[in-house]
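During the reporting period, our protein records have gained a structure token line. One record among many is quoted in full directly below:
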Amino acid sequence: MKIMLFLFLFSCQLFSSQNILPEEKFSVSQNYIYLAKFEFYKKNYRKANGLFKKAFYYHSPKDSYDLLDAGAAALYSGENELFEKYIIESITKYKAPLEFIINYKKFEKYKNDSFFTELPAKYDVLYNSFFTTHQNLQVYLDSNLLMEKDQMIRDIISDLEKNTEETNLNKKFIYNQLIKIDEKNAQDLIDLTKKHGYQENTWLLLWHHRLQFNDENNFFWQFFKPYINKEIEQGKLHKSFFAMFEDFSEMESKQTQKYGMFPQSYMINPIKDIKNVDWLRNEVGLPPLLYDKIVNGYPIIDDKYQLSESDLQNLLEKRISKYEIIKANDN
């Protein structure tokens, strides 16, 4: 009897969220969100609402989209206070735009409710609280400045390429100057990241360096690849972070995609291994490809892809089954 009790207590300790690594917690949270959004699509609103709660138990929301969808599930389930909490958080923590919230398709039939009609008058105060409560506002502003400079450089280059009046010699001179400024800006981002950590508002600057992603000698990616991987291990970023960069590189070099991150390009850049794409996506924490079609409305233009809606349900449920036990033990 004592042995049985010991084994039971040991298993309870083993299946505890405290024993889950940070990287895994982020993946668990996203898996709950995938299933929650799938259940919402099936109009199982209460189930979706419960799944969102479990997702945020393991990790904070990834972005405002997750909060808005969680808000919709709460609203459709009659949990108005929770709905308001999620929407307010989407503004105060992620700066979700007012028009985007009000016109969010899932809120359409509730647009005349008091919360939505009163939100415009409250929005500026909520939006400004993003800045007043930010842990390091100066770093956020500095990183935004780097982003603005980065975008300005690309706008000038774009205008320069279209300018037919400028001589090629002048274009070359200006272009070389812009490249030097761009390299300095990239180094400034590295220095800022070394000192203050990765800033999520600088993602676009990383994306603008995607052409050099596979260049092993590129100083920018020599720093950011291992740094981002460390952030993933610590649960600060999701392990799908590089999926878009990998697919872009694949399209550039082989005209194919590994994960299917660019559904609008399937005709020109098909998925290289459609039979194993869901396994590859799972490796980086992405849902099966069919999920993107059902939940996000993306096309799948390949007859070789075979997965039914019930198969998708089973796969999504399987991903969280282990953690249902853990959550029960924590309670």
In short: The radius of gyration is 23 Å. Residues 6-10 have pLDDT under 50 and may be disordered. Residues 231 and 237 are 6 Å apart (CA to CA).
